[in-house]
Amino acid sequence: MTVLTVWMIFVIQVCPVHAENVFERQLGPSPFLKTGAPISSVVVVNVYPHDAGNFTQGLFFHQGYFYESTGLYGKSFLYSKDIKTGKPLQKVKIAQEYFGEGIALLKNKIYQLTWKSGIVFVYDRQTFQTIGKMKYEGEGWGLTSDGRYLLMSNGSSTITFRHPDSFQVVRKIEVHDGSRTVDRLNELEFIKGEIWAHIFTEDMIVRISPKNGKVVGWIDLSSLRAYLPQNAQVDVINGLAYDDKGDRIFVTGKFWPNVFEIRVAGHAD
Fold it and tell me: pLDDT tens across 193-218, in order?
C-alpha cells in the first residue's frame, strides 16, 4: 500500500461528513482535477522558526510581527511573536473550556474565534487585554478582515461577513468552483482584494472572489513539505498571513517547526 493511499484513507476517516466532496487526487504536480481555475505553484523565499508545539489555528502579520492563535483545550493562546526568532513577545491564555481558532485584526482590535463555544473574544492589540466578547451560532474556524467587516469560515463552503461591533451576520457567500461547491474552508486571509482559504486536510489554498464566492484560482503548497525535517511530527497546513506593505505571504501548519515566506509562481502543469 502506498503512502498516498494510507493518507487518503485517513482523510476520509477523520472527515466523513465531507467524504462526498473530497477532491480527486493524482500523482504529479497538479493535485486537483475538474477545475477551470488556474493552479499555481509556490517558491520559498525565506524560512523562519516556529514553535513546533503550537497547534496553529490562525495567523496574521502586523507592523513587523506575527500574531498567532493556537487551539486545543487547555492550550489555547493568543501570541505576538518575533519573526526572526519565533519567540513570543506577548501572550494570553484563554480559559480551559475554550478551544482557540482563527484570529483577525480590525481597527486595532484582535478578534479570536472559539471552535464550538460560540464565543469570539476581543482584545486590545497593544495591551492584549480582553475588552469584550460576542456570541455566534455554529462552529468557528477561520477569520480575516476586508478592512470593514470580519469574514468567518465554519468548515463548510460558506464564508460569513460579520459586523465587528456586534458580530451579527451582514451577508454570506457560497464558495464554488464552476458548478461544484468547495467546502472544508479553514484559515482565511484577505489578500489583494481576494479571500484566500486553506482547505482543511489539503496542501492547498483556494483564491475566492469576495463578491460572489467564485473560485478564481488554486495554490498548491505541497512542495513546502520537502523543507520540513524528515522526522517532524507535523499536522495539517494551517496559518496564512500577508504583509500588505512588503507584499509578503507567509504559511505554516499545526506543529510545524517553520513559517515559510512564499511567492506564488507559475501555473502547475
Answer: 999 999 999 999 999 999 999 999 99
- Please report how many Cα atoms fall inside a 13 Å half-sphere around the Cα of residue 165, on the Cβ side: 1
- The SS3 of residue 156 is coil
Q: Alpha-carbon distance 183 to 23, whole Å?
A: 10
How would you classify the pairing of strands 215-220 and 39-49?
A: parallel
The three grid cell numbers given for residue 77, joined into one nine-digit string: 493562546
pLDDT in tens, 94-130: 999 999 999 999 999 999 999 999 999 999 999 999 9
Residue written as grid cell 512542495? 223
- CB-neighbour burial class of residue 224 (10 A; exposed 0-12, middle 13-18, buried 19+): buried
Q: For residue 156, what is its C-alpha cell? A: 463548510
The CATH code belonging to domain 26-267 is 2.120.10.30
Give the C-alpha distances (Å, rounded to integers) separating 252 from 97, 173, 243, 244.
26, 26, 15, 18
pTM here is 0.85
Single out the residue of 47, 46, 68 nearest to residue 59, CA to CA: 68
